[in-house]
């Protein structure tokens, strides 16, 4: 009996060790920065075509709750576009366990939210010192909780970002009347059958919590109002399961575009597929990253 217990213990230790090593390999990062008194990590991709004599755009892409930097990289395909168009991509990493972004004030206060904003600001400073970055073409996007963080960064650091994008975003931060301070081009994707961040707003159907998410079309309309867009959005259909609402008559050339994925889930359109039983269907009719990049190229930062 003792012999069997020893073997079982060794097997458990082996399995635990394997899982730790596997998580470490998948959770890889290649950069770190000291900010707000703690070491924060990120994954940076610099395409082979980058040359310091030519300032390049920078795309910041933020993972969702329970996800991580390398997962965001593999899911979105941003690196492939970076090779094609010559921009840099950075995937910052959240904190705590599971990993997350503090994209709205917590009951304990706003300190953690401010630290996450400071992390991104310090990271941008470091990357701009190290690489030739075109500071008029820095863009931020994110998935789910990361989309909420991108929304927050557009409000808190409007002078740093030219445009913002979100996929299945948890847009929980309520801006002050004077935020973001300038018109901000916005592109977003959201599925009508998202089980985690409901398209119609309210609490998540798949989770037992009281978080009240905004209705996505109302959220987009609020952005259009902040950007001074005139009139109702133009609606177009891109595919059988994808239509778009576009606010284009906005101040200083800004736009707000919402892509509505009919029947899709809590997933990245055109990206790596997630488990259907957990997140719902992944749309393959459009490529969110490519559409975002096309949108970003049309919207460099302009002086207010």
Brief descriptors of the model:
304 residues, alpha/beta, Rossmann fold, ten-stranded mixed sheet, 10 strands, disordered N terminus
Written account of the structure:
- This protein is of the alpha/beta class.
- The protein has a single domain, classed as Alpha/Beta hydrolase fold, catalytic domain (Rossmann fold, 3-Layer(aba) Sandwich), CATH 3.40.50.1820.
- The protein is 32% helix and 21% strand.
- The protein has helices spanning 2-26, 69-76, 78-85, 111-130, 145-156, 216-226, 276-279, 288-297; strands at residues 31-35, 38-45, 56-62, 88-92, 133-143, 163-167, 186-191, 234-239, 242-247, 256-261.
- Strand 5 (133-143), helix 5 (145-156) and strand 6 form a beta-alpha-beta unit.
- The N and C termini lie far apart (76 Å).
- The model is unreliable at 1-25 (pLDDT under 50).
Short précis:
With 304 residues, this protein is of the alpha/beta class. The chain has 8 helices and 10 strands.
Mean pLDDT across residues: 90
Order of helices and strands: HEEEHHEHEHEEHEEEHH
Shape: globular
Number of domains: 1
Supply the CATH class. Alpha Beta
What is the third-level CATH name, the topology? Rossmann fold
CATH second-level architecture: 3-Layer(aba) Sandwich
CATH superfamily: Alpha/Beta hydrolase fold, catalytic domain
Profile the largest sheet: 10 strands, mixed
Stretches with pLDDT under 50, minimum 5 residues: 1-25
**Main β-sheet, spatial strand arrangement:** 1-2-4-3-5-6-7-10-9-8
The quaternary state of the protein chains shown equals single chain
Strand content: 15-25%
């Amino acid at each position: 009996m003792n012999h069997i217990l020893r073997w079982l213990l060794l097997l458990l230790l082996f399995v635990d060790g394997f899982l730790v090593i596997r998580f470490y390999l998948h959770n890889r990062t290649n950069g770190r920065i000291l900010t707000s008194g703690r070491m924060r990590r990120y994954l940076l991709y610099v395409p082979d075509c980058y040359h310091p004599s030519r300032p390049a755009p920078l795309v910041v892409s933020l993972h969702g709750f329970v996800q991580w930097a390398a997962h965001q990289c593999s899911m979105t395909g941003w690196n492939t576009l970076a090779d094609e168009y010559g921009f840099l991509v950075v995937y910052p990493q959240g904190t705590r366990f599971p990993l997350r972004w503090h994209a709205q004030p917590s009951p304990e206060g706003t300190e953690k939210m401010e630290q996450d904003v400071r992390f991104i600001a310090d990271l941008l400073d470091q990357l701009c010192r190290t690489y030739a970055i075109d500071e008029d073409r820095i863009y931020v996007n994110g998935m789910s909780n990361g989309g909420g963080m991108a929304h927050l960064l557009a409000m808190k650091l409007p002078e740093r970002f030219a445009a913002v994008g979100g996929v299945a975003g948890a847009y929980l931060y309520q801006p002050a009347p004077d935020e973001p301070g300038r018109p901000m081009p916005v592109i977003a994707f959201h599925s009508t059958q998202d089980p985690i961040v409901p398209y119609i707003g309210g609490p998540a159907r798949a989770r037992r919590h009281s978080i009240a998410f905004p209705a996505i079309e109302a959220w987009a309309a609020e952005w259009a109002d902040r950007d001074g867009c005139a009139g109702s959005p133009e609606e177009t259909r891109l595919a059988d399961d994808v239509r778009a609402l576009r606010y284009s008559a906005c101040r200083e050339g800004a736009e707000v575009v919402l892509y509505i994925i009919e029947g899709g889930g809590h997933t990245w359109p055109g990206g790596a597929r997630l488990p259907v039983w957990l997140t719902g269907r992944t749309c393959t009719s459009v490529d969110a990253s490519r559409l975002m990049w096309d949108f970003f190229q049309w919207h460099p930062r302009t002086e207010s």
